[in-house]
Design a protein that fits this description.
Layout: H1 2-9, H2 16-29, H3 32-44, H4 52-64, H5 68-77, H6 83-95, H7 99-111, H8 118-131, H9 134-146, H10 154-166, H11 170-179, H12 185-197, H13 201-213, H14 220-233, H15 236-241
Helix pairs in contact: 2-3, 2-4, 4-5, 4-6, 5-6, 6-7, 6-8, 7-8, 8-9, 8-10, 10-11, 10-12, 11-12, 12-13, 12-14, 13-14
């Protein structure tokens, strides 16, 4: 941003690449006032008509600064929208715990004929898990299957396991985990946490042991969940082993 100020002092005119970099910097530093100034300059030069990446960068800047409603206003005013812009907005609403708005954006995106990408699906599944919306989560799972995304991204697999676990469908969550071509500690943690929250201590311990058999080292969260499970079943011997 200091370089930008110096560039303007030298009488040089910023181009689209300059603005893209500046908006990213504003978002990373949460410099909302500077971001608004850049936005006004972009509007004054009428640059949004021909560059969708610049519009997406504005949406991302406002989202990162926590002004998600303004980000949505900017997106809706763009002459053209794509999956990147909508995914950025959906992510922002999800991170703020505003699941209803995130799902509405996902529906709007689909109504415009745009298909969700993996990032969008991960966010929607997170919302479904938090709201325990099993019907919507299952619908999203079917869309993911139809598009052949299973196995292409471990985070997407993790999100599916986590969604089913949070919805109380632990058998389905474990079935999903077993179907994944690759899994990591996060995948197992989702299932262990689900069993612990349902006070299914023995099942949580079994998942913990299976995770270690696969050569995966537990995280702190793994130990917290499995210790809770041990407490629920008074498995003092297992605590000593841990």
């Amino acid at each position: 941003m200091n370089c930008f100020k110096q560039m303007k002092k030298e009488g040089l005119t910023p181009d689209v690449v300059t603005f893209l970099s500046l908006l990213k910097a504003c978002g990373n530093t949460k410099s909302i006032d500077m971001g608004k100034q850049i936005h006004n300059e972009i509007m004054g030069r009428d640059l949004l008509e021909e560059n969708i990446a610049l519009g997406n960068a504005l949406v991302a800047m406002y989202t990162k600064c926590g002004v998600v409603d303004k980000a949505q206003q900017v997106l809706e005013e763009l002459p053209t929208r794509d999956v990147v812009g909508w995914s950025t907005l959906i992510t922002g609403y999800t991170q703020q715990g505003r699941g209803h708005e995130a799902l509405k954006c996902a529906e709007r995106m689909r109504s415009e004929g745009l298909s969700s990408d993996i990032v969008t699906y991960i966010c929607i599944l997170k919302v479904c898990g938090k709201t325990k919306d099993l019907e919507k989560g299952t619908e999203i799972h079917n869309q993911i299957l139809n598009r052949g995304f299973i196995g292409k991204d471990v985070m997407l697999g993790n999100a599916l396991v986590d969604m089913y676990a949070k919805c109380g469908m632990l058998a389905r969550a474990e079935e999903m985990l077993n179907e994944l071509p690759s899994r990591n500690v996060v995948t197992w943690n989702a299932l262990i946490t689900g069993h612990a929250q349902q006070e299914q201590g023995l099942d949580a311990l079994e998942c913990f042991e299976r995770m270690q058999i696969e050569g995966l080292s537990p995280y702190v969260t793994s130990f917290i969940c499995v210790l809770k499970a041990c407490g629920n079943i008074r498995a003092f011997q297992n605590i000593e082993v841990l």
